[in-house]
Amino acid sequence: MQLNNKLSILIIGFSAVGKSSICNRYVHDVYENKYSPTIEDTYRITKTYNDKQYLIEIIDSSGHEIMHHMRHDYVENSKGIVLMYSTKLKESFVDAMEIYEYITYINNKVPIILCSNKCDKNIPDESNINELAQKFAKTTNVYFIKTSAKDNLNINELFDTIIDLSIKYTNSIVPLRIKKKKCIIL
Ligand SMILES: Nc1nc2c(ncn2[C@@H]2O[C@H](COP(=O)(O)OP(=O)(O)O)[C@@H](O)[C@H]2O)c(=O)[nH]1
Ligand SMILES: [Mg+2]
Hints:
The chain is α/β, with parallel strands linked by helices. It has one domain: Rossmann fold (3-Layer(aba) Sandwich). It has 5 helices and 6 strands, in the order βαββαβαβαβα. The structure holds guanosine-5'-diphosphate and magnesium ion. Guanosine-5'-diphosphate binds near residues 148 and 149.
């Protein structure tokens, strides 16, 4: 496989929002209730698009302090970013908004999917976080998706979409994101 057919996709967000869980659900179709903090894990899969084979590296980042030292390189080198928060934790959404500013400062063109995880069946969503997130996604032209690693909700859709966008982005056929001034009242 040619080296220029290698794409990195970054999964980034606050600690314990479910970054490792969505990766494990997608790559191995497993889910665990226990929490084990990640330093960094990389998953490699191949994907064929327009008769061309791509090696996709999914980088499951730690979300801890160590991440801050590596963040710049991760963001700069990725061709697609899943920016994740937990629908159960407002703090993780606030953090995602800060990370968004950071990403756009480094690269205003890379495709981003804002992902609201822990949207489990049978648990009512009483927070207004997802509403705020949807408004934010609309004004900034980022994609928005609700997932549950636990219930296997929209996990394939999330990865299929970000892989598709990242392939298009490397082939310069994805419309550029528009950076608009956002106004989010938390
Ligand atoms: N209810 C629920 N819990 C989840 C979901 N995804 C992950 N978790 C739990 O959240 C905790 C942190 O998950 P993990 O994937 O390690 O988070 P990370 O730090 O972002 O990688 C674990 O106890 C998981 O079982 C989900 O979709 N629903
Ligand atoms: Mg993790």
